[in-house]
């Protein structure tokens, strides 16, 4: 079996957890891919599972990372349950103001309601736009950061995150 490569966002969250004296470990590859759990950490003595999401572009051709929205998966490329329906306690999402810790169940519930209400009705780049990727079986939803900011149980500012994805350079 090929060892899964961890991305910058996952390594950064592990580093930030350790700086906060949290015990944290990466999950096995099979757990990461099947249950959408990247890391397990101890928060106040309780083990919590986390799915880490880095910055995203609204369209692949966009030069800048989005400052207004984040794509989340309802159904993945294989047609299986996406990260919103994994088993992680929290989804930790990169944003222009820092790392947002959101309760996965809460955001999943809202995304399903918005998907049902808005499927086929919203315009691209509008709030809560959904898209099915033809030939892949995936269904994704464009979630406004303003919503994610309002439900975040924790926000970690991070200059390295900001500089990597959101700082404008000439």
| Strand fraction | 25-35%
Fraction of residues in H or I helices: 25-40%
Distance between the termini: 43 Å
Radius of gyration: 16 Å
Order of helices and strands: HEHEEEEEHEEHEH
Tally of helical segments = 5
Q: For the largest sheet, list the strands in their spatial order.
A: 1-2-3-5-6-9
Residue-averaged pLDDT: 88
Shape: globular
According to DSSP, the number of beta strands is 9
Class computed from helices, strands and strand pairing: alpha+beta
Unreliable sequence segments: none
> Biggest sheet, open or closed, and with what strands and sense?
6 strands, mixed
What would your notes on this structure say?
It is a single chain. With 170 residues, the chain is α+β, with helices and mostly antiparallel strands. The protein has helices spanning 8-19, 29-35, 104-118, 145-151, 159-165; strands at residues 24-26, 39-43, 46-53, 69-75, 90-95, 98-103, 130-133, 138-144, 154-156. The strands form 2 sheets. The protein has a 6-stranded mixed beta sheet with strand order 1-2-3-5-6-9, with helices on both faces. A 3-stranded antiparallel beta sheet has the order 4-8-7. A hairpin with a 2-residue loop joins strand 5 (90-95) and strand 6. The model has no long low-confidence stretch (mean pLDDT 88).
Key features of this structure:
170 residues, globular, 3-stranded antiparallel β-sheet, 9 strands, 5 helices, 29% strand
Topology:
Elements: H1 8-19, E1 24-26, H2 29-35, E2 39-43, E3 46-53, E4 69-75, E5 90-95, E6 98-103, H3 104-118, E7 130-133, E8 138-144, H4 145-151, E9 154-156, H5 159-165
